[in-house]
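Recap for those who missed Tuesday's class. We walked through two folding examples back to back. For each one, the amino acid string is listed first and its predicted structure tokens come directly after. Nothing is annotated here on purpose, so try labeling regions yourself before you check the end of the notes.
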Amino acid sequence: MYTFSSKLKTFSLILMAIGLLGIGYGFISAPKDIQEVEAILASDAHGSHEVSKSSTEAHAAAGENKVSADAEHKEHLEHVLNQLQNKPWSALYVACIFFMLISLGVLAFYAIQQVAQAGWSPVLFRVMQGITAYLPVGSVLFFIFLILSGLHFNHLFIWLDPSVVAEDKIIANKASYLNFPFWIIRAAVFLIGWNLYRYFSRKNCLAQDEAKDDSFYKKNFKMSAGFLVFFIVTESIMSWDWIMSIDPHWFSTLFGWYVFASFFVSAITTICLITLYLKSKGYLEHVNTSHIHDLAKFMFGFSVFWTYLWFSQFMLIWYADIPEEVTYFVTRIQLYNLPFFGAVVMNFVFPILILINTDFKRITWVLIMAGSVILFGHYIDFFNMIMPGTVGDQWFIGVSEIASVLFFLGLFIYVVFTALTKAPLLPKRNPFIEESKHFHY
């Protein structure tokens, strides 16, 4: 049995405490009115808002009606106010959905291993189940966030604002799908469905340890096959509902796959890093370098898959040059140039250069370094997907972003490593456990 060390527990609680303080500071320090915004703009000589302000003044100087110029300037200030008030909410949302989807990705990977009747991975099943223990906690927090969005505590989803829908024909045409009751019901169905599978699959896996036959294993096999069908459908819809609808004028037929690739490679990387940590503490005696090598191969393979989808989505839209589609990338290239292309370096160039080497796939420090870069790179990927539609050009990595990551990281570590103490780390009666123990190549 794994014992949750007091040092790690303290570390996770400290992260959560620092995160909560930073999140609170982010909300308190957000501007409350346009006067505060004007003061912020005046003190920042490098922001794009100065261009807009100068443009307004230039129009006035050119002889435009002063009332019109003042109205335009006030409208600009209100727009910036909404963006800056969105910023702490957006930072919280990015971290909240990122960690929840990591646990969901691990759950999907676990289900794939069950259905494939994989012989190499059963010694890692309890690690996977420990990581998926975060899914119920993350789901509750995420659902609360969606409820708060529907109650207009924030303005991340502009289609939730009736005044916007009334004036926007494109959004109005999507109102039969993008409306709060239907949206929140879909979210509840998805979250409940995923968590039910997690609960019963773990229950059957633990029961199999004490069983005299393979009946619980067979139940899990059938349940996993059904879950994967449910998952592939709900994952696509989830990506439209929770991320793509932030930019409701834009859509991509590849988006569901793109989001999947991002959180799936993050999930496999998390399995690898936690396995290496447990191994370093003397646990998981049957996990050998061949198991680690296979996890690293998945990290490498899905990094390439993510890049394929990134390039396909970008190239097709950019080449077609349809205004309502290409604006998605124009915004990110012009306003988010560093994180946009930085994500490609961290999520493709770096893994390719490091993990293409077979020997490196078995070296602990190399995998920790590569895994840390991959996880940070895919956090930035989610940042790129969400922030442009919520905060526009008012983005920067500040207290709110760092604090949100620290809080959810601390919570993730606490929940996962607490769950790992609840059951033996080796499934006893899995039909493939002996094959997995002696897995070498």
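Example two. Treat it independently of the first, because the proteins are unrelated.
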Amino acid sequence: MKRTVFARTAAGSLAACLALGLAGCGAKTESTASSQTAESAPATTETATAETADPYAYLSDFDYSSIFDENGYVAGVTATDYVTVPADLKLTLSEEANTVAAEDVDSYINDNILASFEETVEVTDRAAATGDTVNIDYAGSIDGVAFDGGTAQGYDLTLGSGRFIDGFEDQIVGHTPGETFDVVVTFPDPYENNPDLAGKEAVFTTTLNSIQETQLPELTDAWVQENLNQELGLTSVDTLKSYVEGILLFDQQANEIYSQLNEQLTVAEELPESLVKYFEDYYLLTPFLYSQMSGATLDDFVAASGFENTAAYLESIHGYVESAAHQTLIIQALAETYGIVCDTDTMNSEFMGQFGTNDTSSYTAQYGETYLKMSILNNLVTQHLIEVANA
């Protein structure tokens, strides 16, 4: 059973999607019947034999808290030197931003909470349908002759996933556990996985061993008490819905507030070097860790994804770096303007509301205390602006 903390967490709020594709960084073997285009591992021309071989090896010691001070501010930086906050800052919130639809609350609970506790159960009383995960044995042949890679036993396949060549998954739909039947498909032409099979018709003798489907738990007061009370202090369906409504309301209000801030605040073109360097390293960290897993330097790793080198990759994500630096400075400038800080006492009192637990130890171990303070400061400033807009 999966467990997830469902609180608003700003610890990752500055993260944006990296331009570099990172899935499939390890070698992967698929049967011939599998998808037409397999994910390939990054091709590296040279392996880092020592830590000094990679000029970005310092990222292995990246410290999320390195530039933030005891109040959650960027250490040594006065943000109002870079951000102009107008004295007549005008913020308003629409009725839409201040209202959460009941169906949105229900959808959030289903998709983000109950889905984290879903269980896989075996189905025995119906035929396979698209979306089911089935367990199959299959043996493929062309003109009655078996071919390499065309046989598997106990293979789990989600119908409709597109993992197998066109027509294969569709022909399993409608069969019941225990049935053996032929799946007839034609390999595409060209077929990169095995050019010798391109354009040929194949017969896969297939046995459907079992069908599994995922089921969400029934949402009851007892379920909430058992699963969400210890972490979130929730005791009933009503308290859960109120909790989720608060999350959605905050997000809606924050989106409108941030839009208005972008229109009314101005940020200097020249940003603090320490902040820019921090976010460059922040966004390099994930590809660096993948490069280490594949035994490559960061330059080799990004080159395998189409970039000349790491400098070129950094240039491609410059917008993300700049946006993160802007957001950090804007929040801090507003905090300076309104006298808001996140000291240790404030962090401890606000931690439960933002992270869904009173235990700061695991978060502190991963991110450091001052990064968490910066994260909470973000929410404190946003909440203050919401109150100003609604006054």
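Answers for example two:
The radius of gyration is 26 Å.
The beta strands are 83-84, 119-123, 133-142, 145-158, 180-186, 201-215, 266-267.
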